[in-house]
Amino acid sequence: MFTGIVEELGEVTAVENLGDASRFRLRGPVVTEGAKHGDSIAVNGVCLTVVEHEGDWFTADVMAETLNRSSLGALAVGSRVNLERPMALGARLGGHIVQGHVDGTGTVLERKPSENWEIVKISLPADLTRYVVEKGSITVDGISLTVVDAGPDHFTVSLIPTTLDLTTLGRKQPGDPVNLEVDVIAKYVERLMGSQGAGR
């Protein structure tokens, strides 16, 4: 489990085509400290498994399903990525509960800078609209964010300078894809309420 609090901005240093999968080599000195084979690291919000690790880099295999359902398929050598290790048991939950299971992708539609923050508008797939509410939580490229406005096909988030400086959202431009993970609690509530309705 993750919290959506990005630990560092890493970089893709190699991409190997494995036919029905890809192997990424990623540099991240913070998240690789103490890393070992089989550990989990979230890359732009996608939970990946460490295959190899040496120094400040690690490799991870990404199957076709993940490449097709997330924005990881668009990564290339030199791409910057948000990296986060799983939350340690007993640690503070600084963001919200993030599983690292991407629900869909959106597209940056618009950026509106102001003096001390920036509003970013992102498209929202129709099947995820019901899970996104004003002042609720959403994960964008692995970043735990608060929804400012929830529209029928989009939402907006307000980004502080720290988020702009230390994550990929400071660099994303209109047209760029982003990974989205909605609040898992909303999905559980929907399932439970549906079950109650069926029982009645």
UniProtKB/TrEMBL annotation:
Lumazine-binding domain span? 1-96, 97-193
**Recorded metabolic or biological pathway in which this protein acts:** Cofactor biosynthesis; riboflavin biosynthesis; riboflavin from 2-hydroxy-3-oxobutyl phosphate and 5-amino-6-(D-ribitylamino)uracil: step 2/2
Spans of the Lumazine-binding repeats are 1-96, 97-193
User: Under which EC number(s) is this enzyme classified?
Assistant: 2.5.1.9
Which is a Pfam family this sequence falls into? Answer: Lum_binding
Q: Which residues form the signal peptide?
A: none
InterPro entries listed in its UniProt record: ATP_synth_asu-like_sf (IPR023366), Lumazine-bd (IPR001783), Lumazine-bd_dom (IPR026017), Riboflavin_synthase-like_b-brl (IPR017938)
Q: Which PROSITE patterns match?
A: LUMAZINE_BIND
**Its catalytic activity?**
2 6,7-dimethyl-8-(1-D-ribityl)lumazine + H(+) = 5-amino-6-(D-ribitylamino)uracil + riboflavin
Report if keyword Transferase is assigned.
Answer: yes
Entry keyword Repeat: yes
Question: Which SUPFAM superfamilies does the record cross-reference, listed alphabetically?
Answer: Riboflavin synthase domain-like
Q: What is this protein called?
A: Riboflavin synthase
Q: Which organism is it from?
A: Streptomyces plumbiresistens
Taxonomic lineage of the native organism: Bacteria, Bacillati, Actinomycetota, Actinomycetes, Kitasatosporales
